[in-house]
Amino acid sequence: MATESVLKLPLKDQVIFGHEGVFIHPSAEEGGVEQDLLVSGSLRILDKDTEVVVEFRPLEDTVDPSNMLCAGKDSSSVVEWAQCLGERTSSQQLLEAQQSCETEWDMVNAVSFRKKPCANGEGSLNHSHEKNRWAFSVSISDLRSIVVKDEGWTFLILQLKDSTCLPPLHFHQGGSREFLDSLRRLALLTESPDDETRLLVSTPNKALSQSFENLLDDNNFGLVHQKFKRDPYVTTLGGFSKVTNYIFDALRGPEEQHQRPPDEVADLLGEIIPGLEINQQEEPGFEVITRTDLGPRPQVSRGEPLSAEGWTKHQDPEGRMMNVAELKHTIFKGGLCHAVRKEAWKFLLGYFPWSSTLEDRKHLQRAKTDEYFRMKLQWKSVSEEQERRNSRLRDYRSLIEKDVNRTDRTNRFYEGIDNPGLALLHDILMTYCMYDFDLGYVQGMSDLLSPILYVMENEVDAFWCFVFFMDQMHQNFEEQMQGMKTQLIQLGTLLRLLDLAFWNYLEAQDSGYLYFCFRWLLIRFKRELSFQDVLRLWEVMWTGLPCQNFHLLVCCAILDSEKQKIMEENYGFNEILKHINELSMKLDIEDVLQKAEGVGLQIRSCKDLPHSVTAILGLDTDRRGSDPTRNGSAPAAAQTSCSNGHLTKNGSQNSVRVGFRS
Q: Rounded to whole angstroms, how far apart are CA atoms 96 and 101?
């Protein structure tokens, strides 16, 4: 049973995690008093202000396995008890055991009985000396790895950086997952490439141990942070500056450490982003990106939005969509007129199959309507009493209510008090928690739903379109935010290819990590563009044209337009941040899309592209003969299919090659 009591500790110590009923199994070889003796204790993670430690403290009483009883896992309505190390007890023996022992049990796992110490001391063993030798307290910065194994219950083996292995910790009554989840909030746990049972532990410093997934606050999708730079430029920038400054401080470290040597930067980056490999030497699997002549950038033009008449021409008499590749190309070049969006978005997002007939879609909508309201009823029927015992659902509801009340309130669809649009936003997001309870609700998701509900004007259709959009965006909001980390690396790779001089300038200004693009990528420019421009951008991106990860080319196009001012004005880190932040609501979406398409064509025409770039944009697949206007599922794969992107960062004399494991 988890316990979190700060009263027993000095005020400076805070319990981050606590769990009792964790066992050590001493063996005769390890010098145990008795081979069958079990040492039961409590495992805690403590924040001691100067460091965070993992601590195991044995309880006053040890446990004799001869007194342990197990629940029969095949029993259903009646719990069947059997002695672990002996024959089945009679009812009378069981009654006597229960009278002389106190029970700690878990119906699913094991039930242990501890002998109660008698008043006169009889019946208890004095193992205080033995107990104390199994106590330990280690800093998480000293941890190298954790081996996770299962033998009917989970046990963990903690290995220190000096190769010392602590005694295995056996979780007879559960709690191992909660322990690892708590540790993940303080350190980076990544699976070892050589041993799938081993988690490697990285803790670069206390600022970084806050972990990348917590970089959101109330003003800008929930950034939780301990510090941010004090500077007159950024104090007025709101939540976005908090996001970028926190990342900046975490990466850059104390003021006296600003000029890190390349090898130190390599080590730091490798610890910040799980799965990232950084090498100082030439090795197979890594490529050095050098200056590439891309040739002139083609001039492209945009078209007119697809009209309702044009959309209807692409349907056969039964309602199937014809010439889908041509249709997507038309949408990519000009978008859609608003009257078409309600139907077309369902196809672009994957809710409706392109080959479905009108009758097929009616059946699908009926089935999806039933499914939606079954899920909605799940949270609607939860009583107040139930919700008081469901902290996750309670937290989801609280966060949703807070975010809904400030989402697009200047839009007529959501303005005013008691607006029905806000009620629909709330209900759809709550129902999504039932659909994907593991993810639940994360701040920023309301920004992705709002335009979809605005277009659909229907609760059920909006929900399912949102589900398919979240399938594409899911990694942005997962606990480890691997999608965000990957995209920032990929964007750096593209930017370096397109303009090495600008990239080097950003590097010199401590801005090579491109954290000022964090918000762009997280919610697909939702807060950078006017509401109508967001609709246009999203439908263009959902076509999957002209390549994978087109949204990264949109980032490149915006930065390309701003690079001259940034470099001519000699902007430093804070000025770059301020300038990029102030672009919000000032971008011309048609100009951005035109330039992004031109950048894509410029890259595609180059014959000697680095493999990392072709992988990011999916051009290696296209060049093997597949149709570049393949189906619209490309965006969904865009964030996960490019795991081998590479990036080279130049130091004054050395270069650091960065890449993901193939």
A: 9
Radius of gyration of the CA atoms of the chain, in A: 29
**Apex CA 314: angle with CA 311 and CA 318, to 5°?**
110
- If DSSP codes are grouped into helix, strand and coil, which group holds residue 532? helix
pLDDT in tens, 41-79: 899 998 877 788 999 988 754 444 433 333 333 333 222
- Give the amino acid at 459: E
Q: Cα angle at 431 between 429 and 432, to 5 degrees? A: 65
| Topology of the domain covering 357-477 | Helicase, Ruva Protein; domain 3 (1.10.8)
In angstroms, what CA-CA distances link 158 with 57, 155, 201, 208, 526? Answer: 15, 10, 10, 21, 44
Interatomic CA distance for residues 451 and 428, integer angstroms: 13
- For residue 101, the model assigns a pLDDT of 36
* Whole-angstrom distance, CA of residue 483 vs CA of residue 231: 30
Contact 447/425 with Cβ under 8 angstroms?
no
- Contact partners, residue 447, CB within 8 Å, separation at least 6: 221, 407, 523, 526, 527
Best CATH choice for the domain 262-302+480-660 from the list 1.10.287.3510, 1.10.472.80, 2.40.50.140, 1.10.10.10: 1.10.472.80
H helices, E strands: number in the chain: 24, 18
Task: Tell me the per-residue pLDDT of 406-419, one tens digit each, with 9 for 90 and over.
Answer: 999 999 999 888 88
Residue indicated by tokens 């690396």 = 489
Beta bridge partners of 83: 69
Cα separation, 32 vs 26, whole angstroms: 5
Number of residues assigned to the chain: 662
